[in-house]
Amino acid sequence: MKIHDFSQGQSILNTFMSEIRDNGIQKDRLKFRRNIERIGEILGYEMSKNFTYKNKVVKTPLGEKTMNLPNEEVVLCSILRAGVPLHNGLLNYFDSAENAFISAYRQHKNDPESFEIVVEYLACPSLEGKTLVLADPMLATGQSMVATFEALKPFGTPKNIHIVAVIGAQDGVDYINKHLPENANLWIAGIDASLNKKGYIIPGLGDAGDLAFGEKLQQ
User: Fold this and answer.
1) What is the pLDDT confidence band of residue 8, given thresholds at 50, 70 and 90?
2) Which helix (H) or strand (E) holds 160?
3) What Cα–Cα distance (Å) separates residue 105 from each residue in 11, 38, 79, 133?
4) Nearest-angstrom CA–CA distance, 84 and 37
5) Which of 32, 81, 100, 172 could form a disulfide with 139 if both were Cys (CB 3.0 to 4.6 A apart)?
């Protein structure tokens, strides 16, 4: 898997990343969602440089112009619910993309530090020969991303696979690197060093779903 880590560069991306991490600023849910969306836009723009392109003649009011346009059938797949703002950011740039949604969540039983990934709801078009973009803001253990990829296999074999994440732990990056196809690409705005005993990214930013949409009741 090829890893594109944008935390090493200098750009306006760093401003949005600092605000979603900041314990004071992130409490503004609207700003938090919008920043995640903007990060998705930036990562989507960078990802588009990896697409294949073809020439198309465009007619203007005064003549014609040959333009080099993306030649990809894109399917955006987000993991609910935290992935929705990131999905919106990607969709702002790939507005003709098809869309898929999946619920993959941690189910804790008796041990709060132990969990399994449960996949329930899934809506997806055919992936055969298309470019699959899997979006989830937090890449912690990597298990949810791998479970999602496995759940999508009955829908066909994509031509290209791209993973888009906002913040990941090195353990999660290593995990998906081991379990996803070698030709996959990871586009990520930041990689943190570690996970705590509950599998949360340190320093991370907290629970992205709760910050975006409010706290949820645990079942």
Assistant:
1) confident
2) strand 160-169
3) 33, 24, 9, 19
4) 9
5) 172
179-197 per-position pLDDT tens digit: 999 999 999 999 999 999 8
> What's the pLDDT at 206?
92
Token pair for 89? 């950011």
Residue 99: Cβ within 10 Å count: 16
Closest CA relative to residue 17, chosen from 194, 165, 170, 210: 165
Distance of alpha carbon 45 from alpha carbon 39, whole angstroms: 10
Cβ within 8 Å of residue 178, ≥6 positions away? none
pLDDT reported for residue 38: 98
| Alpha helices per DSSP H over 94-142 | none
Residue 24: count of CB within 10 angstroms of its CB:
7
- The helix/strand/coil state of 136 is coil
- Residue 193 burial by Cβ neighbours in a 10 Å radius (0-12, 13-18, 19+): exposed
